[in-house]
């Protein structure tokens, strides 16, 4: 282990913070640069299921098993599939006994932040560019400010990474799917029929060239997505983002119990265009730079693997840096293994995005659920 290495991590998402925590735990000094002004600048998004062999394993390596148990929701692992007539086609048996508890993204980020020393994360530090110094090290540029030089810069800055262009020519491509996100508060008290419809976990509703995904979050909050296969500019002219009930016009003929979701939703909607990097995305090693998480292998959310892969990248990169004295060898070992490891997840997510809303989507979803969630 080379504790004198100067390491910069760009991006304080689940990947970057897991890496910072594991390295810090083993005596290495790291600096994290995050463009958001503080941990509460924006809600961090919905609920995530952390898998035993990746997300949970990484938190164990981070020494955060107990912190995780305090925020994990084992009771919310349910999964349902319904058609647009409101017929329930699948319900996971014994969802509470599953190994993939849900955790709210904000709670996960807070647990990771609480485990880091004050000053480790530089807030309000959006990095615009990374430049070579000439001696194998790199500097970070934040407006007129320069940080560094660093021996290693890790891009964990998500889909639109500013580090990735130094390693790869690829940009994420639009998958053709647009998610219109809605939220429902206090569902148990204010909307008991909707709470019953969704159940304790996730509800997928597949219809004719449309779908709705709704997921239970902590504090009786539901987060949902109305899913459309449309050009990127479609939502701007067809969706009123200040009126959730207006979504009903795009789901004509759907069962009234399902349409009630849009009546119950908060007025403000968010539009999310789903992008992905090509399956098998990789780059030639360049000393002093690497990528983890979405910056390395952005996938559509259909596999539910993105955050798990990001956290496992962090754990594996940390392990190589801790056991291999030569930084470049450590990073190459991480990259070579990671490129292969993420392939099946990236392939599965790509297939999910390609078949979602197709004529076969309901049958494929059903087969997937039977294969993956029903005990064999
Ligand atoms: C709608 C939707 C639903 C999803 N659902 C799931 C799910 O159920 N399960 C799952 O596993 N995954 C899911 N994902 C994917 C998951 O969100 C990502 O894979 C995961 O967040 C990746 O973590 P990360 O740390 O690599 O990047 P991010 O979480 O994107 O974090 C990147 C961080 O870098 C910061 N940043 C960006 N640019 C800069 C810059 N230039 N300078 C400094 N900081 C910067 C950002 O502010 C952010 O804090 C979903 C994604 C979407 C869009």
TrEMBL record:
Coiled coil stretches, renumbered: none
Residue positions binding NADPH: 42
GO MF: FAD binding; monooxygenase activity
Residues engaged in binding FAD: 49, 105, 294
Pfam families: FAD_binding_3
UniProt-listed GO biological process terms: response to antibiotic
Domain FAD-binding: 7-84, 152-323
SUPFAM superfamilies: FAD/NAD(P)-binding domain
GO cellular component entries: cytoplasm
Cofactor(s) for this UniProt protein: FAD
Reaction(s) the record says it catalyses: a tetracycline + NADPH + O2 + H(+) = an 11a-hydroxytetracycline + NADP(+) + H2O
Compartments it resides in: Cytoplasm
EC numbers for this chain: 1.14.13.-
Keywords for the protein's UniProt record, in alphabetical order: Cytoplasm, FAD, Flavoprotein, Monooxygenase, NADP, Nucleotide-binding, Oxidoreductase
InterPro entries: FAD-bd, FAD/NAD-bd_sf, TetX_monooxygenase
Gene3D superfamilies from the UniProt entry: FAD/NAD(P)-binding domain
Alphabetized PANTHER family for the sequence: FAD DEPENDENT OXIDOREDUCTASE DOMAIN-CONTAINING PROTEIN (PTHR46972:SF1), MONOOXYGENASE ASQM-RELATED (PTHR46972)
Subunit structure: Monomer.
HAMAP family documented for this protein: TetX_monooxygenase
Physiological role: An FAD-requiring monooxygenase active on some tetracycline antibiotic derivatives, which leads to their inactivation. Hydroxylates carbon 11a of tetracycline and some analogs.
Family to which this protein belongs: Belongs to the aromatic-ring hydroxylase family. TetX subfamily.
Comment, domains: Consists of an N-terminal FAD-binding domain with a Rossman fold and a C-terminal substrate-binding domain.
Protein name stated in the entry: Flavin-dependent monooxygenase
